[in-house]
Design a protein that fits this description.
This protein is α+β, with helices and mostly antiparallel strands. 33% of the residues lie in helices and 26% in strands. The model has no long low-confidence stretch (mean pLDDT 93).
Length: 142
């Protein structure tokens, strides 16, 4: 079975965030780091070259595939801020309706800039996502 491509790297999260361009994306990334630290109480870890993760979990699917993944986190990508809620956004329609301007996929929320969303609702969403994830897999702090 193929290994996950995205793994913890040991890279310096602060250095990564300070190097993000443009400045608006860097400032949003630094603010997201603060929000995630406050909500989770955990220290960030770089996953791959551009994902900042908080907490981790080990999964084993019915197919036998298994691996480790970040429990929650974000990436200040060029096109948008990507916010990761595992195992997905399916059960969070009420929170998403109050969040503000965004798009989302299964486990990824896309936000152009933090000013477009309600930070209090984002905090609720992060906490709800972690609670939901813990019903599937044990979540470990980082």
């Amino acid at each position: 079975m193929a290994e996950n491509k995205t793994k913890p790297t040991g890279a310096d999260v602060g250095a990564f965030l300070e190097a993000v361009e443009p400045e608006r994306r860097r400032l949003d990334g630094l603010r997201l780091d603060q929000i995630f630290r406050e909500v989770t109480g955990w220290s960030p870890v770089m996953w791959g070259p551009s994902m900042v993760g908080y907490g981790r979990y080990h999964y084993i699917y019915k197919t036998g595939r298994e691996g480790d993944a970040l429990a929650t986190g974000f990436s200040p990508r060029k096109a948008a801020l990507s916010i990761y809620i595992m195992p997905g956004y399916a059960d969070f329609g009420d929170l998403l309706a109050r969040l503000g301007k965004h798009k989302h996929g299964k486990s990824c929320l896309y936000v152009n800039k933090l000013a477009d969303i309600d930070e209090a609702v984002l905090r609720e969403l992060i906490a709800a996502g972690l609670r939901d994830l813990a019903t599937y897999w044990p979540v470990q702090p980082t």
